[in-house]
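ESCALATION

Customer reports they have been waiting on this structure for their group meeting. Please prioritize. Original submission:
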Amino acid sequence: MVLCALLALMLGRVGWQLLAPQAPEVPPSPRKQYVYEVAGTVGSPGIYSFDRPQQLGQLLGAAGAQEPRPDGEDPGRALANGSRIVVGTRVSVESMSAQARINCFLPVFLNAATAEELALIPGMGAKTAQAIVEYRDRNGGIRDMAELRGVGGIGAKKFELFAMYLTLEN
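Update from on-call: job pushed to the front of the queue and completed.
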């Protein structure tokens, strides 16, 4: 009798677990990375990656710059993701090269990249890159990524291949 009761309890629990509503699995959200390149006269030049945006002073400190404020540059200046900071007698802030951006999984600026830079994108090729630049020049820039589908040689599959490597933001 006791054995029957235990068996009934176990079967009831298994049945309850099978029939109970399950919460849908939520995929983990991708973690945003902020990537910066530091070059020039710093202790540790290279590529730096952070979980949140950095200010110039923070990044220069992380790279071991001797003077975190050369030429009165504002250390509180917010840096855009994909910035390249060159430290010398002055500090200059520019965008990372297209190759560096691709290597760091950052998109390339569609309206600023040269045909040679666009050709670095996986799946693009020199001919397609040149067609994009010519289209962009004829039309005064590209305002929407969907415009790329109007460039000769770019169909839906090709567009999907390289769209993630491009951005309109500069």
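Sent to customer with the following note: Residues 107-167 form a domain with the DNA polymerase; domain 1 fold (CATH 1.10.150.280).
Escalation resolved.
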